[in-house]
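During the reporting period the student researcher (J.K.) took over the structure-prediction task from the postdoctoral fellow and processed the backlog of single-chain submissions. One of the processed entries is reproduced below for the supervisory committee.
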Amino acid sequence: MNLSIDLQYRSSEEWLKMVLNDFDAFLIDHANCERKASAMAMGLVAKYPDRKEIVPELIETAIEELEHFQSVYALMEKRGIALPPAMEKDEYISDLFIHLRNNVEHRFIDRMLLASVVECRGAERFQMICEGLEDKELKQFYKMLWASEAKHGNIFVKMLFHYFDEKEIYARLHELVEIEASVMKALPLRAALH
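J.K. obtained the following structure tokens:
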């Protein structure tokens, strides 16, 4: 059973330069993404409370994402950056979620697999940031986040094995990874996680 996800599109060096040149803007977006990730995991608990086998892992993931938000917020406070009055819409997430199927079981699979893909994209980008930063403290922080996001990318796939056949999971995962690559290619570059 292979739990790793191979993304089909590599983030560009131009994106990394943009982030490193406007790191304060990136931190605001990063904080928002961590808040949304925590809410997403708890949203899955609220939507699927009957999936008892995965509820504890979803709660743990939500707590970890909230701790990441807390850490990013602490960095923002050190740098004198305030949270924005409202969170911007994330076009990346919106463009991915258009592809959710409507059947109840298929929608559950798609939500979990898209969560995996999004976490893997975060891991890829945190690795790039880690490798591009000079500040040792920030470098260590993004190394920790890179490892955590990679783990989260795998657990959403793993959770599906409680309910679905491996072939069905990986067939749909392959489709969603292709869709994610198309979405990434179409997005304008900005100092943001997505």
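The committee noted the following: The chain has one domain: 13-81+89-186.
J.K. will present the remaining backlog at the next meeting.
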